[in-house]
Amino acid sequence: MARIVVTGGAGFLGSHLCRALLDRGDQVVCIDNLITGTTANIEELFGVAGFTFVQHDVSSYVWVPGDVDAIMHFASPASPIDFERIPIQTLKVGSLGTHNCLGLAKAKGATFFLASTSETYGDPLVHPQSETYWGNVNPIGPRGVYDEAKRFAEAITMAYHRHHGIDIRIVRIFNTYGPRMRPDDGRVVSNFVNQALAGEPLTIYGDGHQTRSFCYVDDEVRGFLALLDAEVTGPVNIGNPHEITVAEFARVVLEVTGSASPIEQRPLPVDDPTQRQPDITLARTLLGWEPVVELREGISRTAEWFAKDH
Ligand code: UDP
Question: How many Å apart are CA 5 and CA 20, to the nearest integer?
């Protein structure tokens, strides 16, 4: 049993991670400033033994009393519409927030686990993306606030490892979906599923030829735990290599939901990556991990959740 701090624990991924840690008997200190997260995501955890919640912005000095075995730093806006709405907070939590959490890890002698992103690869010129690829990021574009903050976060995490001997993990998370996504987060999965359920047009940005590879949240979180428990320093991709165009994805959503919504084209956002697919050789060989939930099954569960609760 370990005592684990999860920053961003009231967010989409963070809340699933808190649940998974508690389920295996760990204690969880969940920290969130509730800018993009919500207590609704952790409502079911408040009564669970070993769970505590602290409302705090980790971009400011962070302290947790008592022993801590690991800090899993998931706090960050993660949607392109958030990068435009709260760009400075996005930069701060990736940079200052990561620094503060590394300081906590150093003080506690704890493992530091960084939630990084496929966005470190930017609009990738290498396909699929393996961890050895350095990426193609526009530092001054609207997505740069997230991409560069996460790239800085990886750099400072490696520096703390090399300079201070901190035990670290870095996961590069590819597009993940499932229950507890914010219905209004502007991501393609929440938009398409909610549009399909409401009988509204599905909004395809650009020609829909751009690709993504979608991983169901349960698979993703299982990958986080496998990485936490392994002794792997350096980034590891965790994502589903099943690649699909946005136009094909729209057809899948219509089929799974049985919706007759039409398709509508909208302008492509600036610096929207044209292709994305994780090379998960490292995760397969080092962690024995791979995703198991098929896209149609995962979308069906997600649609059911949106239809029921939101
Ligand atoms: N997208 C779309 N319609 C939407 C929302 C997004 O066509 O209503 C596209 C977006 O331009 C991108 C892809 O879907 O090419 C994935 O977008 P998302 O915001 O989910 O995540 P990203 O991978 O870009 O961070």
Answer: 13
